[in-house]
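Section: Multi-chain targets

For targets with more than one molecule, the full set of components is provided together so that the structure can be written out for the assembly as a whole rather than chain by chain. Components appear in the order listed by the source. The example entry contains two components.
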Amino acid sequence: MTQTTTLSQRNIITMESLTADDIHIILDTADSFKEISTRAIKKVPTLRGRTIINLFFEPSTRTRTSFEIAGKRLSADVINISGAASSTVKGESLVDTVKNLEAMNPDIFVVRHNCSGAPALITQFVNKPVINAGDGIHEHPSQSLLDLLTIREHKGFLKGLKVVIVGDIAHSRVARSNIHAMQTMGMTVKVIAPPTLIPIGIEQLGVDVCHDLAKGIKDADVIMILRIQLERQNQGLLSSLREYSNYFCLTEEHLSNVSDDTLIMHPGPVNRGIEISLDVMEGPRSLILNQVTNGVAIRMALFYLLLGENDANSN
Amino acid sequence: MRILIKGGHLIDPANKKNGQFDLLISKGIIEAVEPEGKIKDIPGVEIIDAKGAIVTPGFCDMHVHFREPGHEYKETIETGSQSAAAGGFTTVAVMPNTFPVNDNRSVTELILSQARETSNINILPIGAITNGLKGETLSDMGELKEAGCIGYSDDGRPVSNSEIMRRALEYSKMFDLPCIQHSEVLELTKGGSMNEGIVSTELGLKGMPTEAEDIMVHRDICLLPKTGGRLHVAHISSGGSVDLVRQAKAKGLAVTCEVAPHHFTLTHDACRGYDTNAKMSPPLRAQSDLEMIKEGMRDGTIDIIATDHAPHDRIDKQVEFSKACFGIVGLETALPLTLKMVDENVISLERAIDMLTFQPNQLFKLDKGTLGIGKAADITLFDEKMEYTIDPSQFRSRSKNSPYKGWKVRGKVLRTLVNGKTVFKCN
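Its structure, encoded as tokens over all components, is:
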């Protein structure tokens, strides 16, 4: 490896707690791992004999698969446990579930949970590292890291870039992670959404708030679109998806007024034509699939940094 | 058997006594209170040396949850009473959100019979305002009073329906007992687990806005004049509500309110790190609310300190924040937390004692909370200076859920007497 430095954290729970150095280390490590996924034989022995438990209490395709592939490309054994199959369905508490799993001696937990704070709770009861793969509407650090990697690849740097995040900020763990991480990296963040989807006090985190998509994206270097969910309508947060689209769906027309270098991102899954038009989604500025590719590298980097460097102790 | 409490600094707000007095108890009744040294030569008297201690009427907590019947794994009348005695409380009013709910004579009688058998403090049941706490139909308030209830509340839940609340205030007038409201507009707090604000935004937890409390307090105050009932606002937590109660009192309306120690010592920042011991309802609020709460204590808008003692087992707290139960153990930390307000010059020591003793008894029109001659000898002795670190594992309560673990505080209960009998003594 080019880096021999280690992270300040032994768990990856929030971007808020990672330093700029941590983030640089993770991104550089991920960079060096990208090549492995382009080989014909996509496997290195780095984490041979290590066991990764993917504990997903909430449905996920992209993130779970990405963590699984990342582990397997490093030769780790990856166990997937989904919420429906876990014993919490039978009434076992989260704490008991993870204590039981830990008794089988895995090396690391990857946790997705619909309750904010669940991974943080788990860290209090297990001695093994925990990676938060998305908790409620709190944080989603690996998504934020892959976003940063993708932006850095295309811009060459992060500091000073202007990012706008459009959509359901109130219910987005991606937005929360990115607001913290991007500010740590010296970027500025603006959020664009109807007032009902802007959480109380968000300005205190140092972000600008805007309710006008066309105006808000004018000088953006990066436009990140978030998924909007139909159920917000029943909560009185949206009038209709139709009206939401009228005001907040990113279209080619919007892009005609911004720089050609502006990057378009979306953490997925996409509601085609609701928050982003098909043209934009599949257009030349869209990095949506690059994000997914980089997700594997980021997760390989996280596994390596949290597990790989302890190799000497494992014998 | 006579007992002489000697050499202490006696504070009895109801009788405006504050100084060095000795107190003589005979057969569980206060026989004499005289300046130090005046009571002499009583043969066979047991002497309690109170030198250096503050001697006050026994504390009254008008808002506790003792979980019996129904959730005895969290607390029982027996363990709750031990917790109360250790905290200096000689009288508690137990909320009706038991299982089954205390909305009829048989449950009230069960509580009182358990109290007789297992408790050595005064247990006063509060009956439900509505049957099953459902907010739909009025409970048999007369029967509840006859069985021993001293007030009405659906605590834990608000009486949401304005018509039902209006009628409750009207109907309860006939029995001259207060309606105690847990003020919360449920539509505004649905799914919420902490105060709405910057902290809930950062933690990604659904918030419960202060408006949910303010609107309900305002509504109830609006209902009050025509009904002639008595409204007591439970565990006031928002600055806006304090303002509303202040205005209503200025108009001469029959409204009172209580504050819990956690609402004048903690803010929503305590929820950071997803500490479920900081999860309560109403939630810990912002610093600006806390300041307005203190102002309400200072100017007398807030009448009473009540702990909302809400014991929960680890089963209910060692879980995801949004799934955790609301509430904390309150009885055993109330005194030192209240004394913090004395330290901060929010209230005088005498007013602090008043809010813990005479005021809550006044609300229920009980002949307690004073050290008057002929009254029951319910007395608390405490050392206002003794410093120590709060250790929930030492609580007498069956549950240990407290956000105050590790707090360095001062003020320790030395001895608690009920009807002249020592029910707690500090080792």
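The CA atoms of residues 133 and 340 of chain B lie 35 Å apart.
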